[in-house]
Amino acid sequence: MTVNKVGRPSKAKERIGQILRAAHSVVAADGFASTTLSRVAAAAGVQRTLVLHYFGSRDGLMQAFVTDAVAAYGDTQLRLGTGGSIDDRVHRMFAPGAYENRDDLVVWSELVHLAVRDQVVRQCLRQLWTERWLPELERQLADAFPTAPPDRVAVTAYGLACLFEAHWAFHLQEVVDPVRTEQAIGAAHTLLAALEP
Questions:
Q1: Would the pTM count as exceeding 0.85?
Q2: How do residues 61-99 score in pLDDT, each as one tens digit?
Q3: Alpha-carbon gap, residue 118 to 62, rounded angstroms
Q4: What is the Cα–Cα distance from 87 to 72, expressed in whole angstroms?
Q5: How far is residue 18's CA from residue 64's CA, in Å, rounded to a whole number?
Q6: Helix axes 48-55, 37-44, angle to 10 degrees
Q7: Fewest CB within a 10 Å sphere: which of 62, 93, 186, 188?
């Protein structure tokens, strides 16, 4: 008599997360150009064939990395100080911790640089910005300033996003200091003042 045994539960979700975290560490240390399936597999502590099994190719891995892992960065930043005052939220945008760690900022910078030459990365980032992050920022601003006209909300959201991106790019270049951070916060408040009744 044979007994049917229940198969072991799938570890796919756990393994995919493990591989994407390893891709993050490899990209942060070596850059996108030097990120290979073998390096990611070694960092994840798995065989290269397992990375291929889940992602199909290096391009598949990098696309998953951009669409899943990087999307989470933006989502996290949009939640900074949620529930707090606008002033608190502005301060958090420019304070240490807006990016969880320096590696996240380095990876983001690498992605922006890669988007110049790589159409897939460019399309992924454009989609994240235009369909996810900017609309969410606009929604949050419209909630905070319910009498502001939608076009002014959109302009302010875009201006804040540009200011945030430039501030953290300057941070990597070691241009940012406490005075510059206060200047960025002041500029953000100037943008937000346009939404006041």
A1: no
A2: 988 888 887 788 788 888 877 778 888 888 888 988 888
A3: 11
A4: 24
A5: 13
A6: 110
A7: 186
